[in-house]
Amino acid sequence: MCMDRKKIVGSICGIMAAVCYGTNPLGALNLYGEGMATGQVLFYRFALAWVVMAVVMAVRRESLRLSWKEFGVVTALGLLFIGSSLTLYISFTMMAAGVASTILFTYPVMTAVIMVLVFGEKMGWRTIFALVLSLAGVVLLYWGDGGERLPVIGVILVLASALTYALYIIVVDRSKITLSSFKINFYVLFYCAAGMAAYALISGQGLILPPSGKAWFWVGWLAVVPAIMALCLMVYSAKYIGSTATAIIGALEPLTAVVIGVAVFGEAFGLRLAVGIVLIVGAVVLTILKATGSERKKCKN
Prior knowledge:
This protein has 13 helices and no strands. By secondary structure, it is mostly helical. The two termini are 12 Å apart. The protein has one domain (5-300). The protein is globular and about 50 Å long. The model has no long low-confidence stretch (mean pLDDT 82).
């Protein structure tokens, strides 16, 4: 049976990871409203998440030892996630979080293209058309409703976040290391906390404590939901169904962020945003059809 238990579990993990990661704006915007800067928000998010993961590792009595290959992989993953998180959170200060999260969702198409260019996967008409639709969606979002353009720097930052996230998923999939999800993320979160502390200090933001109980709640939210839960679920999804399929299922991520942005923060939802979302999600659907078509061929063989 082609669609075995691991594929079902992997698909469920991918869906849950996408929804969890899509709640990033909920915590980030609330903390910005409390007066915290990007570096501070991300440091406390990752530091608290790392402490929780350290406790989990202690309870599981899991060894922290790594081979040189494993050390290289988790270091690469840590650096990629630092880049992806920092560029995304800075973009939240330049544009509506729902729009930023929708542009971020170009990463499934980026994943597919990288797999073609680097690993020799075939690029059919669906992949090419998906790339065109995805770019068209980003252009529509850039122009926005009412003729207002998005800041170029903000768009570049989100696209950089999408690229580094696509590379993160590919490294998880292609590295073939046998580490548990908890162990991988113990080290990834450590790198992220250290990297964000360095950024906050170098940029002059400092590391002031969250100013209120509400702020601590949202720090905890960011540490648990879009950090620990999303990362652990994504690792299992990538291992069980592959990097391309994991990226594709992430369609729920921008939809979650848009709903939060409109319902909670009163962000505008106009025709161009709607069409831009449809085009980008349409690109993902085409990529799904390509992936499922390849899976059917493998099953027949």
